[in-house]
TrEMBL record:
<feature type="domain" description="Metallo-beta-lactamase">
    <location>
        <begin position="39"/>
        <end position="204"/>
    </location>
</feature>
<dbReference type="Pfam" id="PF00753">
    <property type="entry name" value="Lactamase_B"/>
</dbReference>
<protein>
    <submittedName>
        <fullName>Unannotated protein</fullName>
    </submittedName>
</protein>
<dbReference type="InterPro" id="IPR036866">
    <property type="entry name" value="RibonucZ/Hydroxyglut_hydro"/>
</dbReference>
<dbReference type="InterPro" id="IPR036388">
    <property type="entry name" value="WH-like_DNA-bd_sf"/>
</dbReference>
<dbReference type="InterPro" id="IPR001279">
    <property type="entry name" value="Metallo-B-lactamas"/>
</dbReference>
<dbReference type="Pfam" id="PF17778">
    <property type="entry name" value="WHD_BLACT"/>
</dbReference>
<dbReference type="InterPro" id="IPR050662">
    <property type="entry name" value="Sec-metab_biosynth-thioest"/>
</dbReference>
<dbReference type="InterPro" id="IPR041516">
    <property type="entry name" value="LACTB2_WH"/>
</dbReference>
Length: 281
């Protein structure tokens, strides 16, 4: 679940399957929607010439999509050795178990309910496939189980739904928490600067360059939206729905349910800070 409910941040590029970096190929899942943009980006990670590959976010339980992923890896005379989930939302995870059955690879995730034949994922873990190393970075906020994956050799960062290729993501309250999300964005921005990250490979939408600029824009936007919510409450809004109607008045109504999740997360953040009363919920 993404929900591109906020003003534009990111790329205007058209997006399709294909080789995107030295080690990363995208197989775009056939689940495009206002919530998922062009569809879920299933990432095939493989060092040049290697015989092992990692799949990140198999996407929906679409047999044709999963078989295409398997075929792409087999065409390179390689095999899938690990399946990783950036988080458990069904547009990223529903096909994971089936892909594991097709390939014999384990599914690794933060949330035990999404694992299959393997262990979990935690900050500091490094998943190896040949000469490729994917470093796990805990980034809760969009969901409590969200992680990003750093490929330091090529300066790429896979962000799942923490950062999107277009727009900005939902803080999926009550599991997602704005306070955690702000910390995660700041951590990623610091990492982008210190590690020389060149590309963001999101869970939906095109690759982004200038990661530090993008992450700064994400942080600035979240602070601005929080101020909008404060203003809506001060103007008399007494429910999340009323806040949505004020703050997201220019957003298509089909995305208001997604907007309300973020608003609930923002209101919780303000309640925790003692800025608003508990009655607004």
């Amino acid at each position: 679940m993404t929900g591109r409910i906020l003003p534009f941040i990111g790329s205007t590029d058209e997006w399709a399957s294909g080789v995107k970096t030295i080690s990363a190929t995208c197989e775009l899942a056939p689940n495009a929607s206002p919530w998922t943009l062009d569809g879920t980006n299933t990432w095939l990670l493989q060092a040049p010439g290697a015989t092992e590959a990692i799949i990140v976010d198999p996407g929906p339980a679409d047999e044709d999509h999963l078989l295409e992923v398997v075929a792409k890896v087999a065409a390179r005379d390689a095999r899938i050795t690990s399946i990783l989930l950036t988080h458990g939302h069904i547009d990223h995870s529903a096909g994971a178990r089936r892909l594991g059955e097709l390939t014999g690879a384990s599914v690794r995730a933060v949330d035990p309910m999404h694992r299959y034949g393997g262990e979990g994922l935690a900050a500091g873990d490094v998943v190896i496939a040949g000469d490729l190393a994917a470093h796990v970075i805990a980034t809760p906020g969009h969901t409590s189980d969200s992680v990003c994956l750093l490929l330091p050799e090529e300066g790429s960062l896979l962000t799942g739904d923490t950062v999107l290729g277009r727009g900005t993501t939902v803080v999926a309250w009550p599991d997602g928490r704005l306070s955690e999300y702000l910390v995660s964005l700041a951590h990623l921005r610091d990492l982008a600067e210190s590690q020389g990250i060149e590309n963001i490979l999101p869970g939906h939408g095109p690759i982004l360059d200038a990661p530090t600029k993008i992450l700064t824009a994400y942080l600035d936007h979240r602070i601005a939206r929080l101020n909008d919510v404060r203003a809506a409450v001060a103007a008399g809004a007494i429910s999340p729905a009323e806040v949505v109607a004020i703050v997201y008045v220019n957003t298509p109504r089909e995305l208001w349910p997604a907007a309300e999740l973020s608003v609930r997360a923002q209101l919780q953040h303000l309640r925790d800070a003692g800025e608003i009363s508990a009655e607004i919920n």
